[in-house]
Write a structure and sequence with these properties.
Blueprint lengths: L14 E6 L13 H18 L10 E12 L8 E11 L3 E10 L7 E11 L10 H6 L5
Antiparallel strand pairs: 1-3, 2-5, 3-4, 4-5
Length: 144
């Protein structure tokens, strides 16, 4: 049996995004439902893209489409609780960007969940792959 690697630490991630859990995030077992973590990832990435000027939801010619996500869970989180989503660049390709992400309970140094999130960039009008926009390439340097 393969040993599980130690949990990611908050300091492993150069960018952090705070998100407040909602009442509806809890499931019947009293913790944040697994699907909600994917929403945390999506929110953190897109909030960062907007903040660095790499995404204008209504007007960007190139848009990132999610083509792959994954999440491994380590410990439960609950409502009400603020969480931090740590984000770093995992891979920068010609037309794609893969992020490593981790979700931390407020005040926790070890991740409650860890995952990845991949965008492929396409032309908004054709849906055909395009190179990662130059502005985004520059902005991604802070996530390494």
């Amino acid at each position: 049996m393969t040993e599980r690697k130690p949990p990611a630490r908050l300091s492993d991630f150069p960018h952090h995004c705070t998100i407040t859990t909602r009442w509806s995030d809890n499931d019947a077992y009293g913790h944040i439902n697994n699907v909600v973590f994917y929403g945390f990832f999506d929110t953190a990435v897109n909030r960062w893209l907007i903040s660095v000027g790499a995404l204008d939801i209504a007007a960007s010619e190139a848009i990132g489409l999610v083509v792959e996500t994954a999440c491994s869970y380590r410990k439960p989180l609950t409502y009400p609780q603020n969480v931090l989503v740590g984000m770093r660049l995992a891979h920068l390709g010609n037309t794609s960007v893969r992020y490593d992400l981790a979700v931390f309970g407020a005040g926790d140094e070890e991740a409650a969940a860890e995952g990845r999130f991949t965008h492929v960039y396409v032309a908004r009008d054709t849906g055909r792959p395009v190179p990662v926009p130059p502005l985004l390439r520059v902005a991604l340097e802070v996530l390494t």
